[in-house]
Amino acid sequence: MSTYTSQAPDPTDRAIHAGSPQGSSHQDLQVRRWLEIGGVIAAVILIAFGGGSVMMSMTGRGIVKRELLQQKIVGAADMNRKALAVEAKQANLPKGTVLPNCDVSGKQISDGSTALCFASYMRIHALESTGGKVYSELPQYASADGLGTNDPEKALKSKEELVENPQRALWVQETALSTALNASYMADQLGLFGIVVGVALLLAGIGFGILALSGALRAHTSSVPEFVRKRLNRLRAGV
């Protein structure tokens, strides 16, 4: 009477089967699938961030333009290089004074570039009014001779209070207005930078998506790094 005895599978058989071309092909297929899924996810994220960056940047630039137009700022007749050069010479401004190289004469301030140009002309006008002196160089109090003084005893008084130098007040106003205009320029440029970055992200995301969805990895099985295969196998095995 014959008996049947079952034998445990030989470990070497499993090793041979795992190392067979069929097992290797299955592992490569799994690796490619994971990589393609990761490519699609990366593409979606890049496209989402790129689109959001473009929309937010365009909205920001629109707000800057709208706020500037609401102020109804128009360049004065002398806000051009030729006229300003004549004024600066007549006011005896220091030779090192940098004059604007832009023109906004008769133009409405509607964007960051024109706002920056207008602010640069405001600075020169303030220098012409103070004889080429900036805020820190002006005396604190007004005096009878019109030159100003830092001595409270020589300062003019109004109702027992010292009179501030009006030229210093002029510089305070100029600084406040020019700072607002310069901030508009900065915001406008940041919006432009955001649009450029957003477009770059969109293009990168579209490229990732095309590579992943077209199955570009399938044509290059051997290009998958061995350490990537091992890592994915461990993740599937729960190690």
Query: Structural class given helices, strands, pairing?
Result: mainly alpha
DSSP summary: helix tally: 6
Strand neighbour order, sheet with most strands: 1-2
What order do the helices and strands follow? HHHHEEHH
The main β sheet shows up as: 2 strands, antiparallel
Shape: elongated
**Helix percentage range:** 55-70%
Average residue pLDDT: 82
Indicate the radius of gyration in whole angstroms. Answer: 36 Å
Low-pLDDT sequence parts = 1-6, 8-20
Number of domains: 1
Keyword list:
single chain; 239 residues; mainly alpha; elongated
Task: Report a brief summary of the structure.
62% of the residues lie in helices and 2% in strands. It has 239 residues and is an all-alpha fold. The protein is elongated.
